Amino acid sequence: MRCLLIVFITLLCCSPVLATETDPCIECHRQKTPAAVLQWQQSAHVGAGVGCADCHGSDHERLLSKEDMVDAAVCGKCHQDEFAEHTGSRHGMGLHAGWGCTRNLAGRDPAECRFCHEEGSTLPVSKVQCARFLKQSSEMGALGCNRCHQVENNCASCHSNHLTDARISEDPKICAKCHMGPDHPQWEMWETSLHGTLYYSAGPEVGPSCQNCHMSSGTHDVSIGLTSPPSMKPYPQEQQLQQRQAMIAICSQCHAPEFANRELSAADIIRQQSLDIIKQAVDVVQDINDRNLLDPKPSDRPAHPLRGHELVTDGQMLYEDYSHLERLLFKMKKYSLAKTVKGAYHQNPAYTHWYGNAELKMDLVDIRSEASRLKQGAGESSVDGKGANKPSIDDALKILKKKFERGAISQQEYDSAKKVLMQKYLESSE
Amino acid sequence: MRCLLIVFITLLCCSPVLATETDPCIECHRQKTPAAVLQWQQSAHVGAGVGCADCHGSDHERLLSKEDMVDAAVCGKCHQDEFAEHTGSRHGMGLHAGWGCTRNLAGRDPAECRFCHEEGSTLPVSKVQCARFLKQSSEMGALGCNRCHQVENNCASCHSNHLTDARISEDPKICAKCHMGPDHPQWEMWETSLHGTLYYSAGPEVGPSCQNCHMSSGTHDVSIGLTSPPSMKPYPQEQQLQQRQAMIAICSQCHAPEFANRELSAADIIRQQSLDIIKQAVDVVQDINDRNLLDPKPSDRPAHPLRGHELVTDGQMLYEDYSHLERLLFKMKKYSLAKTVKGAYHQNPAYTHWYGNAELKMDLVDIRSEASRLKQGAGESSVDGKGANKPSIDDALKILKKKFERGAISQQEYDSAKKVLMQKYLESSE
Amino acid sequence: MRCLLIVFITLLCCSPVLATETDPCIECHRQKTPAAVLQWQQSAHVGAGVGCADCHGSDHERLLSKEDMVDAAVCGKCHQDEFAEHTGSRHGMGLHAGWGCTRNLAGRDPAECRFCHEEGSTLPVSKVQCARFLKQSSEMGALGCNRCHQVENNCASCHSNHLTDARISEDPKICAKCHMGPDHPQWEMWETSLHGTLYYSAGPEVGPSCQNCHMSSGTHDVSIGLTSPPSMKPYPQEQQLQQRQAMIAICSQCHAPEFANRELSAADIIRQQSLDIIKQAVDVVQDINDRNLLDPKPSDRPAHPLRGHELVTDGQMLYEDYSHLERLLFKMKKYSLAKTVKGAYHQNPAYTHWYGNAELKMDLVDIRSEASRLKQGAGESSVDGKGANKPSIDDALKILKKKFERGAISQQEYDSAKKVLMQKYLESSE
């Protein structure tokens, strides 16, 4: 609707309408970039008198040097509401997604800001501060990372470059381009959910698309109704509640609000249960690191680009240059968790259960088994429980101290565990 | 056809036709559940005079407490033939599928009946007796398990809740909702088979859908022509033959019966070859268990909900709380086997070979390697065959005895293997 | 166009047009193979007077014994241009693909020819010389391998058996039938690329299909523009350049050539970076083999069908009867590499990065970890670097020699490494 309005207003302002044959760029570009010209000629921009130079500028040199890129701000000159909604949404921080910029999230840690901003400034010092991105070759970074994360400042991500055809931006397939794959198969889980199957069998009036629920009434704020950031750790209570109410209002266009609330609450519980399983795995990995048994150890391998020679198990975890145990945790946290939780919210049984929950639990089996193997390799324990050389009292106390120092146990738990260890030592040496 | 007939007969009996505006529930529910009302208004039920209360009853309290659920029996009051076909089919035991209820299968073991029924009764004591289900949280069980397995008593699984639109139930996408994923990707393998690609390129008249072959002539008995239960172990000869003939009759609507028979027989052989590979893997796992080398051992871990502290490698195998070795076997039995065998019957090369057969064989590599690692860890053998401490004669005899006791070798094989062992012992101690 | 021409010419030659009811085969086959008859009746062949016997011959006995198969040569009698293009293309060596026949590739090694041909002859002695195929059961070979690779001499692979409907052969789905799965998911990566999503949302005029780029202007030479064989090792410089120019000419139908060149060059770099990662992994595996630590060792396992008791890490690598370490390399080389590289050329971020690059790097983590485990198991090193029994000077020299003999290091590197080893030995024994 707003789109039509803009077209109409622009039509009034820019008469006479730009003739598609008289734009000065056309003559060459019909040869140079035939699809771009043809698509522009078929677009609403033509009727609205928006020609090549209006978006691209007319300085060829700046264009080729990429100084005059058509970024979201260029589109935002006319499409102001959409630009504002987009910028305030999760899409609007696409380039920061790897780092998980917290500027629009509640409960942010101000200390994190320095990764992207000068102290006290809101201007970015760098576009992306994601450990995985920093390890990429520039070619893989451009295609493998930014081709999706550029959504932050690139409307063409969803609208295509020169067409203005709503068939493109309203088709759920356009979301698939990025929202797919092992780390977040939202496309795949929607396509085979009841919503998706009804969309394809009975049409968009019956089966809702991605856009129907996440861009309801045409908003460009795609974050409405989301109750956790990509880490899956839920927002603070109040923010959660607000977001949930917004989503239930959307669900209620079709469903009873009680039904919607019940289903989404069940997914909340599944999210928490899944995070609990992840925690068990992280504990195992940290314990092995306390014991100095990772192979290779953090100290012996290429430095993490943000943390140096440290064990990293949070959102900045890598998928290279570390131990098999950490790689198992990466798969679990990045792939299996996303499938379980997003599968639950998208009501896809095969994703939440088989691709998700079952994998999570098998990942935990694998992680425990690898930990046991590492301890056995170090002679700390064996399959029959009779470890040839269990850690000495000195080592056991050191491991305990590390656990306390990284905050995994409280002062009280530390003291009491120390006492137990000492007691055992005295008994065994009697 | 039968559907139309029912509509017609009902129309005759229930005139004057129910006005969609006068149903007493409509006024509130147009606000409360707008999609439900709209879909019902567009359904054949309206014309047939079937109103809300006809299916849901009119006692709001019982409705909300879920006492008056619209289960398959409610639909079956009118749709009697379909209900009967459905109930007798594999869909009709969806909730028992995890356990693999054998009531409709040949060669069932009566002892198994007590999992679901009181001795001598056909009434169920519990709806589901599946070890994996019993380990689930109720939220995951409801969404991850029952959302599909409820097909037993829920016609809406395939027909949607309020629409009666044949476009939905005749579209293969509706089958995808459940018949997808790592454990049985029938949807994925059909979609990219010749049948599926012709369906989408040349239309349903040329490429057959799921329904064309598995619900031929509109039957609701989806089991027609299947020659093995989900375990993949083929039915007894006679039942197999009967089922095969039924399937070939369906294939012959398009193909020469000889061609259909040849292709299906090749798939039979692939099924047997795959079961043989599985058997090799199960043997390895059982042998490691005989040697007491599983880590953790069955005795040291949470009890299996149906079998306690026992090694379980059959259809009741879990995917949690056990050893890495068993988890490898689970993936092999549950995922790779299904892809190989179902991929063959659905004539999908990539599924039967790459996702199936190649994985099966790599699973076997992984399982043998893990077994070798466990034996090495216990000092039983080493990579150069010179085990530091091979099992003693006493241990070797114990392992052999366990193998005999679980039925893996006959009395004769046991006796002869014992003799060999003793002979070796005598020779080595000379 | 050419197709229409052929139809037209044939119409002129064969009048009066064959009546579909008078073909002598029809009467029986309407019962025996109803779909075949119906599809032929709807095909362009009828109008062109091409009856059953024209393709199948009329000798029933030969037909049933498969002596008179309708192979590509039969179609080629009329469709001469297409047959020639097909035969010269990569499709035209489908049955040799496993072996990677080099007859149409630059830089071929004449010694390889003897796998398929008598010395000095161009006649094949065997259809397929692929180690993986040779290990298959005949049923799996027929369905899992040849159902796709038969494209070499079977036009029906893409055109279906009796229809001549361009909707089938011009639909990208028909390519999916083979170009899918873990080893080369071209279908999946196109479907969710910008090209694929535009195809489905805005139509084939906007989003190009497989055929638009790989069979541009209707050619049947599907190899145009490809710069590497399935091994991904790029062609010699000149051939690469030629192929690239051909592809850019195709891209330029829509895009600026500079843009196309930039994107494809980035993919070239990603290809090389990925091959470098693979090389690191192959080096690890070969080193472990030099140390005699593969479990089982090549000498202790079933012979490789082409190389016997040898470590094979090239295109003839198996996925069975070997060690866990090799199985990890197989997955990396066959699956992860293909996803990274083909994902880059098809401009699919999720495939090139998550399914590709991330897996490649995790595979390398797994391979290094397994190598470390094998070395530890042999007491060669331990997690704290203090290997109980490092290889003796004799063993270290032997390992070095093997490395030299298989060409991994030059004579100079060998000599210098030997000197270092000897020096260390002298120092330690002082």
Can you describe this structure?
The structure is a homotrimer. Chain A has about 425 residues and is an all-alpha fold. Among the domains of chain A are: about 1-55, no CATH class; about 70-165, no CATH class; about 390-430. In chain A, about 40% of the residues are buried. In chain A, helix 2 (about 25-30) packs across helix 3 (about 35-40), helix 18 (about 255-290) runs parallel beside helix 20 (about 350-375) and helix 19 runs antiparallel to helix 20. Mean pLDDT of chain A is about 85; it is low at about 5-15 and about 380-390. Helix content of chain A is about 55%, strand content about 0%.
List keywords for this structure.
430 residues, homotrimer, 55% helix, 22 helices, 0% strand, mainly alpha
Task: Characterize this entry briefly.
With 430 residues, chain A is mainly α.
Alpha carbon gap, first and last residue of chain A = 85 Å
Distinct helical segment count of chain A? 22
If interface size is counted as residues with C-beta under 8 Å from the partner's C-beta, which chains form the largest one? A-B, 46 and 48 residues
User: Using only CA atoms, what is the Rg of chain A?
Assistant: 27 Å
The residue-averaged pLDDT of chain A reads 87
Q: Specify the structural class of chain A.
A: mainly alpha
Helix-strand blueprint:
Three copies of one chain form a homotrimer.
Chain A: H1 2-13, H2 26-32, H3 34-41, H4 44-47, H5 52-56, H6 60-64, H7 72-76, H8 80-88, H9 131-134, H10 138-149, H11 156-159, H12 166-169, H13 173-176, H14 186-191, H15 194-202, H16 210-214, H17 237-251, H18 257-290, H19 324-345, H20 349-377, H21 393-405, H22 411-429
Helix pairs in contact in A: 2-3, 17-18, 18-19, 18-20, 19-20, 21-22
